[in-house]
Write a structure and sequence with these properties.
two-stranded antiparallel ribbon, 14 helices, 10-stranded mixed sheet
């Protein structure tokens, strides 16, 4: 399992801050966050976190934690649109309000704005970087483009070189979409062999577009009826094949060396412990986001007006994140599961996955089935014997990696 001081989604109160709002120097075709700026008007240059909001957030976030370790995550949009001095100021404020707690920082970035000065700072201060990259050049440049349509892969590879040169700790954060879903082995070996990446997170891209909309947000919310699947979305059979193929390579060669977040989460489900990611937890709602102006929302994928919990200048974080609105949001993931999911043998590892993708009906006509269910069914049934073995090894105080020797000995 991944062991990192700053491992999001594993803490009782967790907020991703967006110091530049939805502003970004890319216009990725599948991005669900770019259009969030429509809720705040379109005047560029105004969607940046003020010093007053920064200080209030840091003070309240630290005070609200019950753990001696506090993890800050800076997200976007593109957080590097804020200057380096903004983050130096954030660290001064963290030190001011730490009150004996250990502080760590994560930064998710597309990497295009990284410089030697940035990398020296990230290394010297021990920040963990999540770098967005979708695989090989063809896979990445299928959708991760600038506003004028120019590709970004070569610039991201320069960012990788900078991070490595300055010994900055970084994880790869990839999406699975129509540009890479049919090439899982090439995808995985790129990260392992070409980049030497040991920590890999990948998530499926599934979005629906509202039909007949000429203005306002283009992407659908949960509950919207008149929608069509976005053309870049991964399909259930692709997702299942992708997961099985990558897993087969990983379980034979890389257990204990390359850490794949989804596989870690699956093993956690087999062990009956909380996974390290909210997607596969029994309840969600523990990972909120804060926009540049202090508005707090239930989840990064639910930044819609009806999921706004309040503002940090008028409400405390505990009031918003432990209040009735967020509590109901959190429990809905479990309470709204259809009968088919409740009776599923893989409920322990899936829990219906993310509520935003529950827009299908079950065989009985009950709403709330996850769009990717068929893919997950294939994946969980495929990995079950391997997960049984690794879970038993861990219970016997042995490393999960002994499965690789067992496979070489023909145990499966």
């Amino acid at each position: 399992m991944m062991d990192s001081t700053c491992y999001p989604f594993s803490r009782p109160l967790y907020v991703m801050a967006k110091p530049a709002g939805s502003h970004c120097n890319l216009a990725c075709r599948y991005c669900y966050y770019l259009e969030k700026g429509t809720y705040y008007g379109h005047a560029s240059g105004q969607h940046f976190m003020s010093d007053a909001t920064l200080e209030r957030y840091i003070r309240e976030y630290i005070q609200a934690q019950t753990s001696p370790e506090v993890c800050f995550t800076w997200h976007g949009g593109e957080p590097l649109l804020r200057p380096l001095e903004f983050y130096r100021k954030a660290m001064r404020l963290q030190a001011l309000y730490a009150d004996g707690r250990r502080i760590s920082n994560c930064l998710q970035t597309n990497g295009l704005l990284l410089t030697p000065d940035w990398c020296r700072f990230l290394h010297d201060e021990g920040w963990l970087v999540g770098l967005s990259i979708d695989g090989t050049q063809a896979m990445h440049d299928a959708y991760r483009l600038s506003r004028n349509g120019s590709p970004s892969w070569e610039k991201v590879m320069r960012a990788v070189e900078l991070l490595d040169r300055y010994h900055v700790e970084w994880n790869a954060m990839a999406t699975v979409h129509q540009g890479n879903a049919d090439h899982p082995l090439e995808f995985y070996t790129f990260f392992r062999n070409t980049l030497g990446c040991r920590f890999l997170q990948f998530t499926p891209v599934v979005e629906r577009e509202r039909v007949g909309v000429s203005d306002g947000p283009r992407l659908a919310q949960v509950g919207d009826e008149e929608c069509r699947l976005a053309p870049y979305s991964v399909l259930p059979h692709q997702w299942g094949n992708f997961l099985c193929t990558v897993f087969d390579e990983w379980v034979r060669h890389d257990v204990g060396y390359t850490f794949v977040q989804l596989f870690d989460a699956t093993l956690a489900g087999w062990m009956g412990v909380q996974p390290g990611v909210c997607t596969y937890a029994e309840e969600c709602g523990h990972a909120a986001v804060m926009e540049y102006n202090g508005d707090v929302y239930s989840c990064d994928h639910f930044v819609f007006p009806r999921h706004r919990l309040g503002n940090i200048h008028t409400h405390t974080l505990p009031q918003m994140l432990y209040g009735p609105q967020q509590t109901a949001f959190s429990r809905l993931k479990r309470d709204a599961l259809p009968r088919q999911c409740r009776q599923c043998p893989w409920l322990k590892a899936c829990h219906g996955e993310c509520p935003r993708l529950r827009f299908l009906r079950t065989a009985d006509g009950e709403p709330g089935l996850n769009f990717l269910c068929a893919g997950y069914q294939r994946y969980f049934s495929h990995v079950a014997p391997y997960m049984d073995f690794m879970a038993q090894a861990l219970r016997n105080d042995q490393p999960a990696s002994i499965i690789m020797q067992a496979l070489r000995n023909g145990a499966f």
